[in-house]
Give the backbone structure.
Amino acid sequence: MLRNVLPRVPGWLGKYCLEKSHLASTVPSDSHHPFIPMKICCVGAGYVGGPTMSMIARKAPDIQVTVVDLNERRIAAWNSDVLPVYEPGLDEVVREARGRNLFFSTDVKGAIAEADIVFVSVNTPTKTYGVGAGRAADLRYIESVARTIAEVAKTPKIIVEKSTIPVRTASTIQEILAAYPGTAKCQVLSNPEFLAEGTAIADLEKPDRVLIGGERTPEGEAAIETLASVYGRWVPRERIITTNLWSSELSKLVANAFLAQRISSINAISALCEATEADVDEVANAIGKDSRIGPKFLKASVGFGGSCFQKDVLNLVYLCEHFGLPEVATYWEGVIKINDWQKRRFAAKIVRSLFNTVADKRIAVLGFAFKKDTNDTRESAAINVCRDLLTEHANVVVYDPKVPADEIIADVCGRGVSPNPRLSVAKTAYEACAGAHAIAIVTEWDEFKTLDYEKIYAGMPKPAFLFDGRNITDLAKLRAIGFRARGIGK
Ligand code: NAD
Ligand code: UGA
């Protein structure tokens, strides 16, 4: 084993450069290969930082991984039995590694100073003010981390952009690092994350690919190899793709834009299906059998949500405008416009079906998370649906198995604002549906597929309506019970 022979920083970076060809051909998916003891720090203990670093800690027990965040509550939760992120399988991974080689801390500077590799996994939301408001990414958190690194980095480090950022952000980080006297020489890499919430552990365990972008210089190549060797513990080498910095940064935005585009495409077709008696699931199945199109991401819905699709497509739109490509910007903006329209269309269909008024009617909203198996509600279509129904003076009762009541109320009504008395949260789906004039399924939680709909129907005023915004129920069976049941694109 080279592990005990090779020196740690600062020499290891150069050693990796020398060992590069060896590593490139030998990084296997098991744990028996050369490693230099390393310390990793990740700034940002959110949906990406927490699970990603937990997986690295599990797969590389000899690497010390410290996840840091300014948010004390979040760090306390990572150190407790109730993790701040609900993700199937995550508890087990954290339990295995925490305290062994996985640590959660608020000592941001201390952890950066000690680390050989610093992942930057902070939030990059859409800017809400000034130039680019509503489109550009707000890079203030990225800049703040870059400045902290520049202040405390006295030994060479590899800085890894894990956050999703606009193309060419690495040059900003490099410029900030270069501006601080006394900062050690650091290499900046781009290593975007492709995990999806709800399947994060499976995605991390068996990623379709790991993308690493770096400078095409000997030092840059050495840094790429060092990071590749970390993933190489469990990811087959052929799945680790290396590119230049800008291709890697841009690929992340493009991947999300293509995925979001597929959903908007099928959602646009769902409206045409409703007008023509075609069935969108049948159409999706028929086109998805074409291997050039493929079956995934063709599920028509009430509209996509989540913290990233909208923000990343808008960021792409902004970049295209910035680089003088208005036609390209308009093309991608269409993805967001269709999504907004689809969310409004769902709520409007409910109102229209209920004889053009939902005032004082009870509407049960089943599901609030932006997709099943997560407690994340960011940009969830449920927020828009609830708001539209409240605007029509409906009494909205929400049930979600994982999202707490105060979160639901704050998301719909705003934080620090007095809640709308027409909005309430139920503890079970049955409680939400009791006495409801209509049910709207907004998140595809599995439990909504197997509810006792006969019992629910019996407790509703007639005609009883059900709007399945996820096409997860058997509409024919529901109609046989007596429901006026509608899906999306059917
Ligand atoms: P998040 O909001 O859940 O977590 C970000 C964390 O960074 C927060 O806890 C915040 O307190 C912390 N932070 C911000 N500034 C800091 C600073 N200066 N020092 C220390 N901590 C700081 O965000 P997330 O969902 O984990 O996303 C992070 C990035 O990853 C984003 O760019 C996002 O686009 C990208 N991404 C997210 C997902 C996802 O599924 N959520 C998937 C792929 C990529
Ligand atoms: C998405 C991407 O899938 C990840 O690869 C990426 O890393 C991540 O964004 C990110 O950058 O944050 P995520 O948003 O967690 O992951 O979840 P998805 O499974 O992509 O779902 C996004 C939204 O689209 C959800 O509201 C989902 O219900 C909806 N969706 C998805 C559909 O309406 N139809 C589909 O066929 C697929």
Observations:
- Residues 245-276 form the longest helix (32 residues).
